[in-house]
Amino acid sequence: MVSSKTTIRIRYADTDQMKYVYNGKYLEFFEVGRTELIRDLGMSYKSFEEAGYMLPLYDAYVKYHSPAFYDEVIEIESTLNQKPMARLRIDYTIRVGDRVIATGYTQHAFISAETGKPTRSPEIFNKLIDKYFKE
Amino acid sequence: MVSSKTTIRIRYADTDQMKYVYNGKYLEFFEVGRTELIRDLGMSYKSFEEAGYMLPLYDAYVKYHSPAFYDEVIEIESTLNQKPMARLRIDYTIRVGDRVIATGYTQHAFISAETGKPTRSPEIFNKLIDKYFKE
Amino acid sequence: MVSSKTTIRIRYADTDQMKYVYNGKYLEFFEVGRTELIRDLGMSYKSFEEAGYMLPLYDAYVKYHSPAFYDEVIEIESTLNQKPMARLRIDYTIRVGDRVIATGYTQHAFISAETGKPTRSPEIFNKLIDKYFKE
Amino acid sequence: MVSSKTTIRIRYADTDQMKYVYNGKYLEFFEVGRTELIRDLGMSYKSFEEAGYMLPLYDAYVKYHSPAFYDEVIEIESTLNQKPMARLRIDYTIRVGDRVIATGYTQHAFISAETGKPTRSPEIFNKLIDKYFKE
Lengths: 135, 135, 135, 135
Fold this sequence. Notes:
The structure is a homotetramer.
Chain A: E1 2-9, H1 25-41, H2 45-50, E2 53-54, E3 57-64, E4 73-80, E5 87-96, E6 99-112, E7 118-119, H3 123-129
Antiparallel strand pairs in A: 1-4, 2-6, 3-6, 4-5, 5-6, 6-7
């Protein structure tokens, strides 16, 4: 298991007329979370793409526990719970202080940019995470 | 069961550098779908709010089957498969022609704006859908 | 002079906690307006890109006359007032019924995708608009 | 004159299929800039709203100098060049390192939330900025 935390301050642009953060924004917050998780592992997602891979979403789930509001600072915890095989799953918990705002996950396919086809988790990625999943 | 279809043309703003529609946009498309479903039932979501109710999301799920691209016209089919009790669930299928782009659902709590508390599906809403769920 | 009108219904996602449409959204509405203007001229912006050109923004101006609200249908009028030379300028007026919501303009450079350099308005585009600017 | 700097990392969500940051996003970056400028002055925009005022946009201008790309860290410099009277004007410069990405401004009306009418710059705001505009 390996996880990472990052924070974002809620913008006016993120809110809707209910005064809540708009529901679709959470997938953007998940993106920020996993980008920082991958960076913490030692590689930017950008360099992952430059190495010829993409990680488009297979699916995504968000559970809304409690609204987040304008100007609050949310903390996104992103966790890789298991070594990816054909698919990469990342779990997220978003909090404001002790208040859980949202939980969820995204699953991603590894796609070779050259062939446009799914591949297994590439060596370049495995090398980064192997140490976290040793028996 | 009752369902509704509406279409949206993909904007440049919806795309990302993979040339795909950005994953978080689908929750916005689901919003457009259910808004039109509720309108087709005979009430705008706006008048539902004016009657003192809100429908914040409980959770949301999106499965990405095939990317959508700039300038394509997506068709969003939104379906109410069962009579809501404490929670309203709407299912979605997004297509471009015959190609399935995404499927998913959102679940919503009925919240009284006055008390801020969850309520059962209000009469104003039940009246609209009763005819579709007669045994 | 040539102009085009198109409509958009305001989404919950477009609103902010002031209950107004968020100010940044107007540039997205302008995009929809000019896309439909170009389509009305006889070419999709997509095919313009496929022909090897891009129209990135040089600058943009928005004046906010009156707020727009959730579920309102805005009408975007996009106008090409003069034949473009090095730069393409499009003017916009957004209305809800008779109420003027916003006015503004965007100016665009013609960029060759091959060289990444600015070019004059290409033949493929001139052909579409010449009839509107005959002396 | 008083100014403030803050940084934002470009998200995948911010990009479009040209691989550039989408033009409408800059108004969101300007929002982040002025929020931090006001916070640096000693008050959150949130508490400004809680004191009964709003700052809706009167107009906005963006000039796009050079594209910004995914994962780049942009620096937003927001400047209040003159003491506001009926209207507040803030100027912005966005840079990536030494590269100027965009410049622009927003002008805002001071609106009383109670009356919905424009007011002069309120005392609560004047107190924060007086020291920067002493002759």
